[in-house]
Structure formats: structure tokens, C-alpha cells
Amino acid sequence: MLNRTEIHKLGKRIRESYGDGTGKVDVADLEMLQEYRLSYRDIIAEVFKILYDTGKRVDSQCIVTYRIKRINSIVEKLKRYPTTAFEHMVDIAGCRCITGDTKQVYKIVRKLRENPALIIKDKDKEKGDYIQNPKPDGYRSVHLYVSLANGDGKQVEIQIRDREQHNWATLVEISDVIIPGARLKEYHTPADLLEFHRILSLPEEKLTSEEKRTYFKILDEYDYINLLQKVFLQNTFIRYQWLNTKSSRIKNFYLIEAGVGAKTKINCYQTFQDAENAYFERFKQDRNANIVLTQIQNVTYEQLSMAYSNYVLSTHSFVSDCMNRYLKEIRNALNNRDIKLYKRLLNSYFNAVAQQIIRINQEIYTINHTLDTVHDQKKRDWIQDLRRQIAQLDGRRDRLITIYQGSMRSIDNPIFHLMCHIITKRLGKKYQKLVQNNIPQ
Fold first, then answer.
1. How many domains does the chain have?
2. Residue ranges making up the domain that contains 299
């Protein structure tokens, strides 16, 4: 086992390897770094068990995961914080609990603080509480740094947040994946995309008119919804992989590799050591690979997709939330008789809905024509879920019709009525044709 001096020197060498312009860490140092990572195996397993038991008693539907920090994340962090000694990095090992609401977050935090098996580094309850004191970019979560009362002093970072807060955090990382050059999580760039996510973190009812305009402006400039749908479509096979790798034997260790240029890959393992060996071998093959190794117990595909949507890259609640925002602003544009804004919002809304319908239908086609090894019942369940999503999109069309008709009844302006009718009809035909031309027969 490495001592503090060896760990300190290792951190210095890793920084120096970046300093020479190559950006590569020596193989021998990678082996040492892997040894140091694995030294957290026992403590994180114990902390995970405590968090899992605590979380499930508060919220039986909560999702609890753990991971040891990825090698390239450690290297990047050493680069970003040149004055921080490696042995003082406190998030090498981390656990996360995702709950239904904020009230449950604080109930779990309180129970952890009362647990005699844990030593909490900071007794100050305000420190690490990014729900009460969100970070400037909008990040919200509660962070605890704990060690075991009977342990060797190693610390584990625990993050506890509700689903809405978690969805925001994963969307930031998705932006880093789908938008070339984006480094939001680590370097807060580009500034306009950072502002977009800051606005997303705020309660919708508290947004100013300027913030709403900025939100939709950036959404359109990046063609954000379409970028998401394209990445989601290429990962149709991720659910198929999950069904095939999830056997009757208990496999709770997941290795997920994400990427825009290549499809997301997922593998399951019975033991931590098997999963870690596979992770390290894959990392040595491609040091830029975006891989996470995590443990999740008794997980469904939907829970896995939600917990690691930034790796699975097949679905995210943002799309549905965004559609709801479009409908509200379309109503406001009609009520304010702003024909230009109505046209722009309606065009973006129709486009987003069309891209979703195309993606879902192409996924159904793929299931029916290429996935012969999937059990018939599992295939039917999968298709039924996709049909349900299409029904929800049909429901959005009905809501739009209701909004349009309600607003028109309150506006006594024949010319405005005619202009809105022409715009709505033309855009409706445009995107109906787009869907028809892109759905496989």
C-alpha cells in the first residue's frame, strides 16, 4: 500500500507530465494510481452499505450508487488545482443517493450525522450544503465527507440530492459530451451555455423575461434538442445490451462507456475486481475514453438511465420539461399578440416534437427488425414503453390545439387570426412531411 509521501510524489509527477506538453502519464505511474484507487475499495463498500440502508429506510425508491473516481478525472483535477496535494484530494471515492424530494435529502443527511459508524469531517451543517447555498452555476446537492469510525482515516464523499437536482447536474455533463469544445463541469465554458444551465436551475416561475428570452435563444442557437435526439437515437442498442448482459446471476457492477462518435457500451460484472480489471484495461487502450464504473443494487433499466443519463445517453427528463416551457411561452406569445415570437417558438416546438417522433419510430423499427435475440416479452414491453412515449407526444399536440383555440377566442383581431392560421398550417405541414420522410417503412 502506498504511503503519504509516495502519494504526494505521484501527484507531482502526474502534474509534471502535463507540464511537458505531452499530456500523458507514465505507465508505471498509472499502475501506482490504479493501486491507490483500489485502496479505497473496502471503505467505499462499507459507506455504500450504510448509505443504501439509510436511504432505503427514508425513500424506498431512492437510487444509491458508488464509484471510485475515474483515472482521467483524477489527472484532470490535479491539473486544475496545481497547489492541492494529491493526498488531500477528498473525492477519490464517492457515493450518491438520489431521492424523490428535498425533504428526504435532509432526513437522510440527519440520519447519517447521527450514525456512530461514521465520522463527518465538517460538523458545520452549512458547509457543503449546496441546496441552501447553490453554486453560482446553479449546482445543488448536499456533500458530506465521511470516514469510518473504525477505519484508517480515508474519506469518502457522499452526495445527496433529489431527482430534479440530479437531472440538472447530469444535463450539464451531457452538454459537455454533445457540444464540441464545451467544458462546463470543469472549466465553466462556454459562457452562454453556462448561463443556459444557470437559468435551468432556477424555478420557472421566478425567471425574468430576459432570462426566458436567453433560454430559448441559446436553445435554438445550439440546436440543443436535435443534438440530444441524434445522440439518443444512436444509443438505441444500449437497452438491448443491458437486457443481454443482465443475466439471472447477480451482477451489480456496471461499466458504462459513453461517446458521441461511437455508441454507448455497457457491461455487467459480478465482482468489483472483475469490473475494475476491465475498466483499467479499457483505459489503457484509450486514455480519453469516457468510462464510469459504478455499483447499483437491484436496478431497473429506467433507474440506470436516470442515475447515469450522462453516460447512457438514451433519455433525459429535460426534453419533456423543455416541451412544457415551449407550450407556456407559445400561449404567452399569442396572448401578447407577438406574431414573430409565436412563429419562432412554434417552429422550434414542432421541430423538437418531430425529432422525437422520428427517433422513437426508428427505435421501434430497429427492435422489430434487428434484435431477434431479445425475448419476445421483453421486446413487447420495450415497444409498449415507446408507444406510450408517442401517445404522450400526441397529448402535447392536443394541448397545443387547446392553447391555440383558447387564445384565439380572446383575441378580436381578424388579421392576427389569419396570420396565426397561415403560420400554424404551414409549419404543421412542414414537420409532418419531415416525420413522414424519416420514419422507416
1. 2
2. 4-174+233-312
Neighbours of 141 (CB within 10 A): 22
Q: Considering the entire predicted model, what is its pTM?
A: 0.88
For 197-287, strand residue ranges (E) read 253-258, 265-269
Q: Mention every residue, 6+ apart, whose C-beta is less than 8 A from residue 316.
A: 167, 170, 171, 174, 228, 309
> Taking a C-beta distance cutoff of 8 angstroms, is the pair 296, 63 a contact?
yes
Measured over the CA atoms of residue 363, residue 364, residue 369 and residue 371, the dihedral's sign is positive
As to burial, measured by CB atoms within 10 angstroms (0-12 exposed, 13-18 middle, 19+ buried), residue 153 is exposed
Helix (H, G, I), strand (E, B) or coil at 128: coil
**Digit-coded pLDDT (tens) for 291-307:** 889 988 878 888 888 99
Q: Are residues 295 and 396 in the same domain?
A: no
Q: Are the C-beta atoms of residues 353 and 431 closer than 8 Å to each other? A: yes
Q: Are 233 and 362 in contact (CB under 8 A)?
A: yes
**Nearest Cα residue to 315 out of 379, 363, 381:** 363
Grid cell, residue 315, equals 433519455
Q: Prior bond to 180 cis, omega within 30? A: no
The whole-angstrom separation of Cα 326 and Cα 329 is 5
Q: Partners of 98 in the beta sheet?
A: 63, 161
Q: Do 299 and 440 sit in the same domain of this protein?
A: no
* 210 within a domain of the structure (yes/no): no
Q: What is the pLDDT of residues 195-238, one digit of tens each?
A: 999 999 999 989 999 999 999 999 999 999 888 888 887 887 78
Does some domain include residue 140? yes
At residue 95's C-alpha, the angle toward residues 59 and 111, to 5°, is: 45
